[in-house]
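Task: fold both queries, return tokens.
Query 1:
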Amino acid sequence: MGLAGAEAGVLRRRRRFPVLRAILHSRPATVGWLLLIAFVLMAAIGPSLAPHDPTQQQLLLRLRAPSFRLGADHFHPMGTDQLGRDIFSRVIYGSRISLLIGFTVVISGGVIGCGVGIAAGYFRGWVERIAMRVVDIYLAFPFILLALIVIAVLGASLTNLILVLAFTGWVNYARVARGEVLSLREREYVVAARVMGARSGRILVRHLLPNIMPTIIVLASLQIGGVVIQAGALSFLGLGVPPPTPDWGRMLAEGRDYMATAWWLATFPGLALVLLVLSVNLVGDWLRDYLDPQRQGGGGS
């Protein structure tokens, strides 16, 4: 009994935390998750980490090189910009904007796109024709042109930036969800539920949605990086978050004129943007492998 109990205990411990073991089994996944958690923590406790007010201007301290000397006027690990604002503090607060945009756009666009795609794939007929024609119209418009039109009409703001990105990103979810539902709607369990008199809403929620969620989760994780880059590109062009709110894209735009004399203005925001996109892409690749039913145990390589 004692030996059997010990073996059972070992098996139970091995079965604990399978996701954590799968992450640690893959070095890229470990790096991606650590980076992503670091960015989330930085955004969550940003005010406690930032040594300075990110919007405070001190012209006497403008274009200071990175310095780790202690003191209110000397501790600038990433230097200061052309207005004397601390780059380190602005990068920390900028992470909140980037993560807020990324997750909000992906969630809202995913809800809209999945609803449209599932309805089009299940009901077919005129529902599918109308939905897919709307998708084709959205795909025919260049993203930058649509963003210019919307922001020119509504004005540049964080809310409008999120709206633009969400209403242009839902089409990817709609196409993927429609394709998945088309392959599932004639499966035996769906046909059996329909024969037993289950309503369409129940079939969609109980049978189809859970089976397409792994694919949608992977797509969403990979979309976050693209959304962050799009938001940064719009801010770089002056169409994103208006100043003085710290934003990595605007910081890159402000630092491009000082690359020869103050390299840190654009280097650190650009590095933060690269690391955030890299982290979500590594996590997305791991999720794709982990949620793939063809792979036993997941984890990637």
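Query 1 returned. Query 2:
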Amino acid sequence: MAYNLPKFPADALPDRLKDFVQNAAAALNCPVDFFGVFSLTVMSAAIGTSRTIRLKKGWEEPPVIYSTVVASPASKKSPAFNLSLEPVRRKQLDFKGEYAQKFEEFEWEMEQWENDKKANSKPQKPIFSRNYVNDFTIEALVKILSQNPKGLLLGLDELAAWVKSMDQYRGGKGADREKWLSFWTCSPTLIDRASADEPIVLSRPFVSVTGGIQPDRLKLLTGPHHDGFIDRILFSFPKPIPDKWTENEVGDTIINAYCDLYDDLFALEALRDGTHIIPKDLHLSRSAKKGFIMYYNANVSDIETEANPMLKATFKKIEAYMARFSLILQLCKDPKSQIIDEKSIEAAAVLAEYFKSHARKVYAQINGTQINDKILRAVAALRSHGEPMTLRECYTKKVANCKNAAEAKQLFRELTKQGFGKMAEIKSSSGGRPTIQFHLNGL
């Protein structure tokens, strides 16, 4: 029986976001996960550089999210993606209208300047404001970010294009992946451009990323070696829903409320000190901090006991995402919030556990394996055993229903193949048959 993953916890979302996610999923007859993941990332980009959450001195987290939905081409992830980005596109159209008006004024001012250059200073061409990109090079992206310090959403219907675009003009020898590693923490960035005398310096580059990806293309995200890139991506790998006709529709009231929430968050501003951006910090309430510490310690325990080494680094990033979720949820509840409350922390913990469970399925897919109940029961039994388990102990205790040595040995081989640990032969001092043991990672 396949591993049963939880559905996206829409009830953990504030009302305006929850109403959109649930109604949109019902209208498209697709997993609620699609809208949950896409819309959460959309709202993270709306907040941008305006706010951070401060956990303690020296530890602040921006609301940056890298996320993807794993699903087949016929799953309706594309329609869900497009509908989720409705407020982003509306805002971009507003910017287009504003630019057209400013450019018309610019042309008139240029005409006046041409007639009398001594009497007038040369007018500056207006900037086309952006909140969204879907096609870029790093150099082009950095230029757009320098003109739009609030930040951007990178939205791609097929997220594989994001990875394929990295270093495409450098024969794979550039540093685009490294740039994206630093963007995740909004670290200061410097880009030298051949077409400019001076480099572009960004004090706080902000880009949230979301899109869909097909299961057989997940390996593209791992890269030639484990550099921590994939650890930063939140995965949702929901069970497909059989297609059928539905009369459900998403009402204008719900869509407009969703778009209004985006606008409310986009209106939030950071402080500026010259070119330096200073986000406003939100602190945890006393009870919220207590809740965060409890979850942090529980997650540390999960990391220490996690058998799959690939998941250890992913779970470590969940500590940061836990904080980021609470910031986003708090501001979606009330954009004027000055503090993170306990309910936002509790909801963030639910989201964190959801993404941890889906990461397990994703890594199994990347490894070409399937995590099923038999494997999970075996891992649980090995952890409870607390030390290397022999073949005899395995079938005597009927671990994962093993009835004999052959079945136990096959189970050990499968656990080894999936990266949960390794088999070892212990030679007998009396010269008899060696004892076969299984060593679970983390013990």
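Both queries returned. Flag for query 2: The chain has 14 helices and 16 strands.
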